[in-house]
Amino acid sequence: MPLAPDHAPSVEADPAPDAGRTLIATGLNHALHDGYSDLIYVLLPVWQAEFGLGFAALAFLRSLYNGALAALQMPSTHLARHLGSRLVLVLGTLLSATGYALAGASGGLIGLCAALVLGGAGSSTQHPLASAAITRAYGASAHRALGTYNFTGDLGKATVPPLVGLLLTLTDWRSVLWLIAGMGVVVAVVVGSLLPRPPAPRREAPETAPRPPGHNGDVRGDPTGFRLLVAIGILDNAARPAFLLYLPFLMREKGAALTTVGLALSLVFVGGALGKAVCGGLGDRFGVTRTVVLTETGTAVAILAVIALPLVPLLAVLPVLGLMLNGTSSVLYGSVPELAPGGHVEKAFAVFYTWTLGGSALAAPLIYGRLGDAVGPSWAAVAAALTALAVVPIMLVLSPRLRRKHSA
After folding, report:
1. pLDDT tens, position by position, 107-138
2. Shortest CA distance to 247 belongs to which of 68, 381, 113?
3. What is the number of other CB atoms lying within 10 angstroms of the CB of residue 325?
4. DSSP of 111-150, one letter per residue?
5. Residue 158: is its pLDDT beyond 50?
6. Domain membership flag for residue 7
7. Which CA distances in Å does 78 have to 4, 108, 185?
8. CATH number of the CATH domain containing 247
9. How many domains in the chain?
10. Over 60: is that where the pLDDT of 39 sits?
11. Whole-model pTM?
């Protein structure tokens, strides 16, 4: 999907005829890549036992994937200008599948680390390119379509990790990763055949060029508001892996088997999928600020409940926790086109994902991993709850800058 370097991606007023195909293809790809990213949580106890790793080292393994994913968002966007978004999305999916195949074939920890970096590099392609493709395809209705796209990612999180947990009871983890890699090859073929070929980019005069949805004719966007949005995204994304890193170990302390851990992650991600589907609409109806304050406060309360409760009631809380934990992101993603500096939506999405994912990737090993080694999983999870609460004051500062109806 080549783009003119000095122009925002063109956005139609009405959905394009092939908008549905675009959403299906990008949604399927999103489901796979988010499942790829979060299946690592199921494997952390396995890798801890096999390699004798502490929490900081486990957090580092998790961050290798997310770090590569975050660091290569902008390069992926630039590459798509030369090769086209469809080809880059397909190649990225094949690269992620190759990473997991090599992880399964690795003979030791170093090989596993290299394979995780490769997998994360492949996953770096899909967030900014898919988000911008949906924005172009759906025009003024892109906000709702982006919510659906984010919902598909959580479907992948809700299905792939429990599938891995089940397969781990039947075979070794290396064989499981080979099966997962094969799934990626199939998805790459489907996406390549389903995703519409994008039209050549149009160069239009500045006064007639279409504006991204939410800009209300102002192509300058709001750079300060966008920076505040990125800061909120960093904290929101840091709280999530900071908690999920320790959830398997909190459950093992309460007597949970590995299959129960997989079920628990599935419950979190099912709730997260519901949060992605519901919270975008709540943001439109009740306001972005109220919705974000509710989800982040609810996240903190639910994390504390998980720490305190025994195993069975803990499982009942997890879907609610997932809803709160992931619901914020739907509201945040929908605000990116509105605040995008200069109206450059694709670049704004790439910057947003780079900082939010990169910030969480660095925080996991440097802060939360070391904290877990120092004070244990429970207190490290409390720190994740406090991280979620830290979003609230920043959101209150951002609120007056949002032009969307009912923003406050």
Report:
1. 789 999 999 999 999 998 887 788 878 877 77
2. 381
3. 28
4. HHHHHHHHHHHHHTTHHHHHHHHHHHHHGGGHHHHHHHHH
5. yes
6. no
7. 11, 34, 24
8. 1.20.1250.20
9. 1
10. yes
11. 0.72
